[in-house]
Structure to design on (313 residues):
């Protein structure tokens, strides 16, 4: 049984495909660039909380697309009701548990000339949501893929965090198992960019404790809760402060955590970094490669660091 039963009819009246535009002018000597075969896939961003953030293009596409692939058809039903949209095309449930099986079918529909709109529960499809397999298959098959941009929990949390926004990375959900989570955080130990994570409210305390253990109690962080919704809340402070808050608060809603990157380190002297080079060498990395990696990371001269390593032996 489909875990996500659809409240929509199995099929509907599909709209005609739009006529091709941009034909070369009469007498033009330039050869026309052939259009990709078939129809198109549109990744459509949906509101992350406030339905008033839905774009006019999203509303139009939901009412005109031949196929709407939805992560949760029940949520789609609530969304179109609030927007006053009637979905004329076929609605298909497309989520993490069936996307491997249904991707080929959807791509075949697009290849036959259909317009397929992909929506997820909130935000942009394929960003920590279903949709990547569909895009990957479309690109491999030479099909047209475009997007209707819109709300993003990642960018909204980053903008509200009060932390540097010039360089950042998105890390999604950390692993649930303690060992795997610790390994992932170890990989991020020297990350200087601002980091954005997602987390479930009932696991937030465990996550913040793991971040404090790895990055220290003074590292700056922001917990963004229920973004764009009625009870939106952004709590900013140190990891130590926010862990204490999480320990004494019943946290609810959808959570994004924004963590400051590692502070710039003074380069020091080459001798200060001999141990780091030797640690890499003990792991099987060649001496010159280890020296190059450490020198680049700590911003010291490779030649001087190499000489310091040899002198210490």
């Amino acid at each position: 049984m489909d875990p996500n039963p659809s409240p929509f009819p199995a099929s509907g009246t599909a709209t005609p495909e739009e006529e091709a535009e941009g034909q070369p002018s009469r007498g033009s000597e330039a050869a026309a660039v052939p259009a990709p075969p078939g129809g198109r896939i549109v990744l459509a961003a949906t509101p992350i909380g406030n339905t008033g953030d839905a774009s006019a293009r999203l509303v139009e596409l939901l009412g005109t697309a031949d196929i709407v692939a939805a992560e949760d058809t029940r949520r789609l039903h609530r969304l179109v009701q609030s927007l006053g949209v009637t979905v004329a095309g076929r609605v298909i449930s497309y989520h993490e548990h069936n996307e491997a099986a249904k991707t080929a079918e959807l791509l075949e529909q697009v290849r036959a000339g259909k317009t397929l709109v992909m929506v997820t529960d909130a935000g942009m499809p394929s960003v920590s949501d279903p949709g990547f397999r569909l895009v990957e298959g479309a690109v491999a098959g030479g099909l047209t893929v475009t997007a209707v941009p819109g709300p993003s929990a990642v960018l909204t949390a980053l903008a509200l965090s009060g932390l540097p926004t010039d360089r950042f990375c998105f890390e999604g959900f950390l692993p649930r198992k303690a060992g795997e989570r610790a390994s992932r955080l170890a990989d991020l130990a020297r990350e200087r960019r601002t980091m954005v994570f997602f987390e479930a409210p009932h696991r937030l305390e465990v996550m913040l404790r793991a971040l404090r253990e790895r990055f220290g109690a003074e590292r700056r962080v922001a917990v963004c809760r229920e973004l764009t919704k009625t009870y939106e809340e952004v709590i900013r402070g140190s990891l130590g402060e926010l862990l204490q808050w999480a320990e004494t608060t019943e946290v609810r809603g959808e959570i994004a955590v924004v963590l400051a990157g590692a502070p710039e380190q003074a380069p020091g002297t080459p001798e200060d970094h001999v141990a780091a080079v030797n640690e890499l060498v003990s792991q099987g990395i060649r001496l010159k490669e280890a020296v190059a990696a450490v020198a680049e990371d700590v911003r010291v001269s490779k030649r001087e660091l190499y000489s310091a390593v040899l002198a210490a032996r």
Summary: Residues 99-111 form the longest helix (13 residues). The chain is about 35% helix and 15% strand.
